[in-house]
Amino acid sequence: MYKSVIVGTGPAGLTAAIYLARANMRPLVIEGPEPGGQLTTTTEVENFPGFPEGIMGPELLENMRKQAERFGAEFYTGWVKKADLSERPFKLQVEGIEEILSETLIISTGASAKYLGIPNEQNNIGYGVSTCATCDGFFFKNKEIIVVGGGDSALEEANFLTRFASKVTVVHRREELRASKIMQDRARANKKIEWALNKTPVEVIADNQGVNGFKVVNNDSGKEEVIHTNGIFVAIGHHPNTGFLDGQITTDNNGYIITNPGTSETNIPGVFACGDVQDSRYRQAITAAGSGSMAAIDSERFIDSLEH
């Protein structure tokens, strides 16, 4: 039996663990076999406060984990296979453990970026392939960049990247974009944005220096071509990691957990959500960490209300 269990070890979950551990709640933090979330795929983080020279993403996560352990947080590695949130204490079936009981639950399982699934994509993440323009755009000053996608997020990232890049080319599989008219108008009015529509991505071209090209096929002619680029930003969406909840928590149409405004509270008392699993707008390490502290405080106050 635990007072609080945290599922997920990105910036949100680790911050929640730090806060709860300092409050003598001795939380259990359950991490998957690949802990840390999207920050583990980021090389240098330059926009997290307190690190004027920047810090590597995995190093930042390791420091946060050590800080939580210092105050007494426990960690266990394994998949949460099922959660029963019908009554308190909540019951979690975790790989390698028969059952875990907890008075409160903090869900910080994040959202996974969708990738193209083409050759050389995964092994160049952090070396020219990215899914976050606000995180990595700074590294592409005066360089040519590709944004893959046709929705609002893709065009928003393309517009943002023109602050740094000499040219941004939007690559989309179809001739028609899915983005809203206002976003299309804004992007088409930007002189730094060029278009490669009706072209399907085939392969990321790279050498030991990183990405230098993007192979696509023209859907009309069937001919392949290579677009020169120094960076490829994949903006085809994210999917929140909530499968283990079996629909017990209220989500929006895209699967993101809905929290009460200004809090981390979900539709189930005692269950809280923080980080990218409930944030489809910002998706930054610092906002995830901030929401993690909110979830910890909400959890602690919930426990206090039970004891009184």
TrEMBL record:
Annotated catalysed reactions: [thioredoxin]-dithiol + NADP(+) = [thioredoxin]-disulfide + NADPH + H(+)
Keywords, alphabetical: Disulfide bond, FAD, Flavoprotein, NADP, Oxidoreductase, Redox-active center
Necessary cofactors: FAD
SUPFAM superfamilies: FAD/NAD(P)-binding domain
Superkingdom of origin: Bacteria
EC number in record: 1.8.1.9
InterPro entries membership: FAD/NAD-bd_sf, FAD/NAD-binding_dom, Ferredoxin-NADP_redctase_2, Pyr_nucl-diS_OxRdtase_2_AS, Thioredox_Rdtase
Coiled coil: none
GO MF annotations in UniProt: thioredoxin-disulfide reductase (NADPH) activity
Free-text comment on the cofactor: Binds 1 FAD per subunit.
Enzyme class at the top of the EC tree: oxidoreductase
Residue ranges of every copy of the FAD/NAD(P)-binding domain listed in the record: 3-292
Family: Belongs to the class-II pyridine nucleotide-disulfide oxidoreductase family.
PANTHER family assigned to the protein according to its UniProt record, in alphabetical order: THIOREDOXIN REDUCTASE 1-RELATED-RELATED (PTHR48105)
Name of the featured protein: Thioredoxin reductase
Species name: Metabacillus bambusae
Gene that this polypeptide is encoded by: trxB
